[in-house]
Specification:
Blueprint: E1 2-5, H1 12-22, E2 28-30, E3 40-45, E4 61-64, E5 84-85, H2 90-108, H3 111-119, E6 135-139, H4 143-152, E7 158-163, E8 172-176, H5 181-185, E9 190-193, H6 207-211, E10 217-221, H7 230-239, E11 242-247, E12 267-269, H8 279-294
Parallel strand pairs: 1-2, 1-3, 3-4, 4-5, 6-7, 6-9, 7-8, 9-10, 10-11, 11-12
Protein name: Glyoxylate/hydroxypyruvate reductase A
Domain D-isomer specific 2-hydroxyacid dehydrogenase NAD-binding: 103-274
InterPro entries: D-isomer_DH_NAD-bd, NAD(P)-bd_dom_sf
């Protein structure tokens, strides 16, 4: 039996090299030249399906190299009833927390204004108001949200978190459920979105939500592009209600060249690089889930298809 590598071809050498270091005996096939479908008992994919995988009726498990699996479950193409696991990797978590700490500190230390002053050759004094520390709100208190909170806490910032169900995180004031969302948002100077994408969270970053934030708040979205109603964000930035947005994910990727986000002075764009899965650490999870799948056991980080993550 064999593992089908059907993820990003440009990353195949990294992933398979790291996996073989753990278990050299594993046999691999590559999409689309995989041979007899009945010989495949496990599939590795990335954020999107490479094609229709429904013919792989002998597969015992599917592992994504991405944390998000919403695209994999859209439009069919997965074998019926086969367990699907998302990537929850220490390296991915570290890189997401680095991204959040960097952009929060950039906001705190007037990075945007200082860079503009340099472009204009101006020796500008932009003091940091130490008596007015911002409150950081994190939407989504899963693995990524909780780690980001732990890394931000030592900076002396006030943290609050919102999730679908109640979560207890040391040092974080927690809010849960839609009824608590207005109270949560009303105290967020910087709003971080790390929510999973579900039917309930699609379009959640909209005008109604933005209007509940304090004036001159900042948005950081590194979750999914479909969380954001783009026209609503442009409207609240142009009106001055929101002061800035940092966006790593978009409804269409790569972001089209003519998109208004590119030239907007209040938007910082990064090309979906906030959290990067690292084969050196993620390979261990893939090997573990391969062993679990072939033994008929539940996968680590197995997706609940009813919830969408």
């Amino acid at each position: 039996m064999a593992i089908l590598y059907a993820a990003d071809p440009s990353e195949a050498d990294q992933w398979l090299g790291s996996i073989r270091e753990i278990d050299p005996a594993l046999i691999f096939r590559h999409w689309p030249d995989y041979g007899p479908a009945e010989e495949i008992d496990f599939i590795i994919v990335s954020g999107h399906l490479p094609g229709d995988l429904s013919a792989f009726t002998h597969v015992r498990g599917i592992q994504s190299t991405w944390a998000g699996v919403n695209h994999l479950m859209q439009g069919g193409g997965l074998p019926a009833g086969v367990p699907l696991a998302r990537m929850v990797d220490d390296g991915l978590t570290v890189s997401m927390s680095e991204y959040m700490v960097f952009h929060v500190l950039d906001r705190l230390r007037q990075g945007k204004a200082l860079r503009q002053a340099q472009r204009e050759h101006v020796w500008a004094d932009h003091p940091v108001p130490v008596e007015q520390r911002p409150t950081i709100g994190i939407m989504g208190l899963g693995t990524l949200g909780q780690d980001a909170a732990r890394q931000l806490l030592p900076l002396g910032l006030t943290l609050r978190g919102w999730s679908r169900t109640a979560k207890q995180v040391d040092g974080v004031e927690s809010f849960a459920g839609l009824d608590a969302l207005p109270a949560f948002l009303g105290g967020c100077d910087i709003l971080i979105c790390l929510l999973p994408l579900t039917p309930e969270t699609t379009g959640i970053l909209n005008r109604r939500l933005f209007d509940l934030l304090p004036k001159h708040a900042c948005l950081i979205n590194a979750a999914r592009g479909a969380h954001l109603v783009e026209e609503d964000l442009l409207a609240v930035l142009d009106s001055g209600h929101l002061d800035h947005a940092v966006l790593d994910v978009f409804r269409t990727e790569p972001l089209p060249a003519g998109h208004p986000f590119w030239a907007h002075p209040k938007i910082t764009i990064t090309p979906h690089i906030a959290a990067i899965t690292r084969p050196g650490t993620g390979a261990a999870l893939i090997v573990e889930n391969y062993r679990r799948a072939t033994a008929g056991e539940r996968l680590q980080n197995q997706v609940d298809r009813a919830q969408g993550y």
